[in-house]
Amino acid sequence: MAPRRKKARKAAAKPAARHTRSVRAARDQSAGAWFERLVELQATLRAPKGCPWDIEQTHLSLRTYLIEEAYEVLEALESGDDAKFAEELGDLLLQIVFHAQIAAEAKRFTAADVVREIHQKMVRRHPHVFGEQRAKDAGEVLKNWEQIKAEERRAKGQKQPEDQPASLLDGIPHTLPAVMQAFQLTRRASRIGFDWENVDGVAAKLQEELAELRAARNPAEIESELGDVLFAAVNLARFLKVDPEIALKRTNAKFVARFRAMERSAQASGRKLADVPRAEMETLWDQAKAAERTLPARKAAARR
After folding, report:
1. Cβ-Cβ contacts under 8 Å for 16 (sequence gap 6 or more)
2. What's residue 142's pLDDT?
3. Confidence at residue 276, expressed as pLDDT on a 0 to 100 scale
4. Cα 151 to Cα 23, 124, 239, distances in angstroms
5. Interatomic CA distance for residues 47 and 57, integer angstroms
6. What contacts 123, CB < 8 A, 6 or more positions away?
7. Which CATH architecture has domain 29-124?
8. Which of 56, 204, 213, 287 is the most exposed, fewest CB within 10 Å of its CB?
9. How far apart are CA 195 and CA 187, in angstroms?
10. pLDDT class of 20 with cuts at 50, 70, 90
11. The domain 182-240: what is its CATH number?
12. Domain boundaries in the chain?
């Protein structure tokens, strides 16, 4: 009987062993496992026998790449190409790991500190999910979020200068591009009701600022009034639930496409665009714009 029992135990152990291997394989393919590998890879690249370029980098030298990768993520997102989107998100993640590795070498913080901090922050700022608090809608969630942020700043001992009391606008970086900063400022103010009742009021304010710009006489006044126009335009975008930075990027892309179409049209007639009369340039622009409108229909027809 003993040999049969031993064989039975071995037979029973085989499925358990297979299950253990499958669990280990799944764990090895998890986001956490791949993140650890990426952290180790970046540490190797920064090691004495690693990559000379990686070793030379500093937080400051990587600033440009961080911004570039963020914009490439947006471009991939809009392309609808999931493989490209995932790739660009990975490139952005690498920048985070890169900065964390530089900090770890100086014994300031590690990649684990970065992940732990954001995990704990998200738990703290979602008491309606992980605590007893309740939020009836997204607006109340955002209001609570700002209150929690203020409490966190106080807990960290982030004191305000005596001549500058605490403000709802605290925490909006001065280093943001102007359009993004204006968007954040108006959005933050709107959360306590400092906002227009309807879109007509915002549009009227934009028209008022345009009139003041037309009335400006000297360079200082023109710059000031133009700034007001831009701020009012950003506020209008925010009210319409449009990200002004994304909207402007798309308009820039449209301008590039239309201008290149004008250049091709001029070249087809044996000329450079610079040699085309101004009035004809307008005609070429209108043609490029009209062709742009019919492009979706032409693409749909081609698919059929």
Report:
1. none
2. 83
3. 96
4. 42, 11, 28
5. 12
6. 130
7. Orthogonal Bundle (1.10)
8. 56
9. 9
10. low
11. 1.10.287.1080
12. 29-124, 182-240, 246-303
**Is the fold of 29-124 the same as that of 182-240?**
yes
pLDDT band at residue 109 under the 50/70/90 scheme: very high
Could you tell me how many residues make up the chain? 304
Give the DSSP letter string of 240-301: TT--HHHHHHHHHHHHHHHHHHHHHHHHHTT--GGGS-HHHHHHHHHHHHHHHHHHHHHHHH
In this predicted structure, what is the pLDDT of residue 5? 46
Query: 8 pLDDT band (50/70/90 cuts)?
Result: very low
Pairwise CA distance, residues 65 & 152, whole Å: 30
Amino acid at 104: A
| pLDDT at position 163 over 80 | no
DSSP 22-54: HHHHHHHTSHHHHHHHHHHHHHHHHSTTS-HHH
Tokens of residue 125, six digits: 């700022």
Beta carbons of 213 and 226 less than 8 angstroms apart: yes
